User: What shape does this take?
Amino acid sequence: MPAMRLSLATVLAVGFVFLILNSDESIAELRQVLAIDPEDLGAHYTLMLNYWALGQTDQAEREHRLYLRFKADENAAPIGG
Assistant: This one.
């Protein structure tokens, strides 16, 4: 049987639907992650996607700003190193 190939658009659409269907649970779990590690890049990025999927643009933009801030901190050159 030949391998099935999915377009990037199909993969993104399926992922978007998954986010919408699982957003409440996902948001709750990501908030728990951030309670332990407030600078977790993956948690902020995934929260941003969840909020955008739900149309909650204010929260999505907040998570985007936090993601960019902590990403910049992560990419900063170490002092004395």
Observations:
- Residues 38-74 form one domain.
- The mean pLDDT is 80.
- Helices lie at 8-36, 41-53, 57-75.
